[in-house]
Amino acid sequence: MSTEHEPQTALDTRFSSPDATAAGWPEGRERLAAAELYWLSTVRRDGRPHVTPLIAVWFDGALCFCTGPAEQKARNLAHNPRCVLTTGAGVLHEGLDLVVEGEAEPVRDDATLRRIAAAYVAKYGAEWTFEVADGAFHHHGHEALVHRVAPATAFGFRKGEYGQTRWRF
C-alpha cells in the first residue's frame, strides 16, 4: 500500500505569518525522507504517553521503523496502533518541523522487508545492515519488528516566515 499521491494541502492562517504560503507536500516528503532522527509517540495501555527517539526510512509512501518485540513502543503499538512521528531541525528561527499522524502497520513480508533493509543501509550506512527472516529484521542476535506509518494527516511548521501547513491524505 502506498500513499505516494498529493494530499489536500491547507495553510492554517491562525498560526501563520500574514505573508506565509503553504509548504508543498514534495518538500515535506523530501524532508521526512532525509531526516536522520525521529520521535515516536505512542500510548500505553493505561493511557499515558510514551515518546522515544528512533531512526526510520521513507519507503513506499510511509515512514518505516523497527523495534524489539519486548520494547515499550512495540507493546504500545500492539495494543493501539495510532501514533505520531515527528522530526525537525531543533532550532527556533529556521527549518520545517514535521508531524506525521497515522497507524503503525506491521510489515511481515520478507521480500518487502529486504527492500526496507536495503533502504536503511542506503540511508544510515552498513552499520544498520539487517538480516531478514521469518517476517522480521535480525541484527546482532536480536529480533526487530518492522512497522510502517502511512500519513493520515501530516503537519509542517515552517519557522522564520512562520506557517502551519496541514496535509490530509
Automatic annotation (TrEMBL):
GO cellular component labels: cytosol
Keyword presence, Oxidoreductase: yes
Keywords: Oxidoreductase
Domain of life: Bacteria
Biased amino acid composition, Polar residues: 10-19
Single Gene Ontology MF annotation: coenzyme F420 binding
Region (Disordered): 1-26
Domain Pyridoxamine 5'-phosphate oxidase N-terminal: from-to ranges: 27-131
Signal peptide: none
InterPro entries xrefs: F420H2_bilvrd_red/Heme_oxyg (IPR052019), Pyridox_Oxase_N (IPR011576), Split_barrel_FMN-bd (IPR012349)
SUPFAM superfamilies: FMN-binding split barrel
Name of a matching Pfam family: PNPOx_N
The keyword Oxidoreductase appears for this protein: yes
Protein name, per record: Pyridoxamine 5'-phosphate oxidase N-terminal domain-containing protein
Species of the source: Streptomyces malaysiensis
